[in-house]
Amino acid sequence: MLFLHNYFTLNSGASQKIALALITTNHVPGCPYTSFDSIKVVADTAWANYHNPPAQTYVTTLPTTSTIQIYPNPVFNQLYIVNNYSAGEEYIAIYNMLGQKVNLPITKNGTGDIIDVNSLPTAMYYIVYRKDNVQKTEKFLKE
């Protein structure tokens, strides 16, 4: 394991920009089954993208008066997404607090989507809901 430390002192009113990236693995049970070389490739790609950003696709975050509702929170069995926002391709992703994507069954009903969270352990999660170029990200607690 490699730790890098960089200590610096700022005078009152001074500022300093710091860029951080957390590189993780999707392999379970984690890094013992992932080579350092494969993680280094991802880290090098992230560093290159930071210095030479690719063409960007802009995502507009919905205002707080959004017509997208994600409820209940906390949730026990089913998480509901009601979307009155018009047309577009839909993207839904659930992430745990380690940033790992969690795959869950999603069904559609007349007003939106139902996500079965029954199999999740009690914890805090993030849901990312994107339709066309509009996105809503929200924390929820699975009890």
What's the quick description here?
This protein has 143 residues and is mostly beta strands.
Features:
Immunoglobulin-like, mainly beta, five-stranded mixed sheet, 9 strands, single chain, four-stranded antiparallel sheet, 33% strand, 143 residues
Explain this structure:
With about 140 residues, the protein is mainly beta. The protein has a domain at about 60-140: Immunoglobulins (Immunoglobulin-like, Sandwich). Helix content is about 10%, strand content about 35%. The protein has one helix at about 35-50, and strands at about 60, 70, 80-85, 90-95, 100, 105-110, 110-115, 125-130, 135-140. The strands form two sheets. A five-stranded mixed sheet has the order 1-9-8-4-5, with no helix packed on it. β6 (about 105-110) and β7 form a beta hairpin. The longest helix is centred in the N-terminal third of the chain and has 16 residues, at about 35-50. The mean pLDDT is about 75.
